[in-house]
Design a protein that fits this description.
The complex is a heterodimer. Chain A has no helices and nine strands. Chain A is mainly β. In chain A, the strands form two sheets. Chain A has a five-stranded mixed β-sheet with strand order 1-9-8-3-4, with no helix packed on it. In chain B, the strands form two sheets. In chain B, strands 2, 4, 5, 6, 9, 10 and 11 form a seven-stranded mixed β-sheet that branches. Chain B is globular. The chains are: A mainly beta, B mainly beta. Chains A and B meet through strand 4 and strand 8 of A and strand 4, strand 5, strand 9 and strand 10 of B.
Chain lengths: 113, 114
C-alpha cells in the first residue's frame, strides 16, 4: 500500500481556516485519497475523499495537486469541536481491491479559542 | 439509525481469561472490519469480513485471537487466553461495500488485561 506523510501536529485558532497537508508521492492511478478524523475517545469518522478533482462537502474541502502527489484537507472555519487526529489514507478502488484502510499516525489538530 | 454498536464499552480482566468483544454492524452493510488501537502501534486492521466470510485475517496478531461472523448482524472477536499486551481499544467498523464506500466506526471497546 502506498504511504502517506503528514505533520505530527498543527495548531489553529478558532474560526480561522485550517489547511492540513498530506504527501503521497507513490500514489498509484487507482488510489483514492481518503480523510478520516478521530475525535477524543471516539472511533474514526469519514471526512471526505477524492481522486483527481477538488471535492467539497459539508465538513471540509479536499484540494488535490495536479500530479496527485500531495493533497490538502481544508476546514474553512475551525471550531473547538474540530480538534482531532486527522488521517490521510490512500485506498485503491480498482477491481480486486480489498477496501482496507491503513492508518498512519495522522496529524493532531489543536484548536485554540 | 443506531450506528455500529459494540459491547462491552469497557472490559477489565485478568491475564489468562477469555475475552469476547461483540459488534453489531449497521443494518444492510455487508462488510465488517475489526481494528485495534494502541499508543505504540496506532490503529491496526485485524481482520475483515465480506458477506460474513473472512477475507483477510493477516492482521490478527496470533492464534490467541479469533473472529467470527455467524450472520450479517453480529460479529465477535475473541482473545483466549488474554495477556496484558492485548490491552487496547478495539473498534469495529462496517461499510456497504468492501471497495470505495466509507467505513462507519463503532465507539470501541476499551480492554484492560491485568
Amino acid at each position: 500500500d502506498a504511504k502517506t506523510t503528514q505533520p505530527n501536529s498543527m495548531e489553529s485558532n478558532e474560526e480561522e481556516p485550517v489547511h492540513l497537508p498530506c504527501n503521497h508521492s507513490t500514489i498509484s492511478g487507482t488510489d483514492y485519497i481518503h480523510w478520516y478524523r478521530q475525535l477524543p475517545s471516539q472511533g474514526p469518522e469519514y471526512v471526505i475523499h477524492g481522486l483527481t478533482s477538488n471535492v467539497n462537502n459539508r465538513m471540509a474541502s479536499l484540494a488535490i495537486a495536479e500530479d496527485r502527489k500531495s493533497s490538502t484537507l481544508i476546514l474553512h472555519r475551525a471550531t473547538l469541536r474540530d480538534a482531532a487526529v486527522y488521517y490521510c489514507i490512500l485506498r485503491g478502488h480498482g477491481s480486486g481491491n480489498t477496501g482496507k484502510l491503513i492508518f498512519g499516525q495522522g496529524t493532531t489538530l489543536q484548536v485554540k479559542p | 439509525d443506531a450506528g455500529v454498536i459494540q459491547s462491552p464499552r469497557h472490559e477489565v480482566t485478568e491475564m489468562g481469561q477469555e475475552v469476547t468483544l461483540r459488534c453489531k454492524p449497521i443494518s444492510g452493510h455487508n462488510s465488517l472490519f475489526w481494528y485495534r488501537q494502541t499508543m505504540m502501534r496506532g490503529l491496526e486492521l485485524l481482520i475483515y469480513f465480506n458477506n460474513n466470510v473472512p477475507i483477510d485475517d493477516s492482521g490478527m496478531p496470533e492464534d490467541r485471537f479469533s473472529a467470527k461472523m455467524p450472520n450479517a448482524s453480529f460479529s465477535t472477536l475473541k482473545i483466549q487466553p488474554s495477556e496484558p499486551r492485548d490491552s487496547a481499544v478495539y473498534f469495529c467498523a462496517s461499510s456497504l461495500q468492501v471497495r470505495g464506500n466509507e467505513q462507519f466506526f463503532g465507539p470501541g471497546t476499551r480492554l484492560t488485561v491485568l
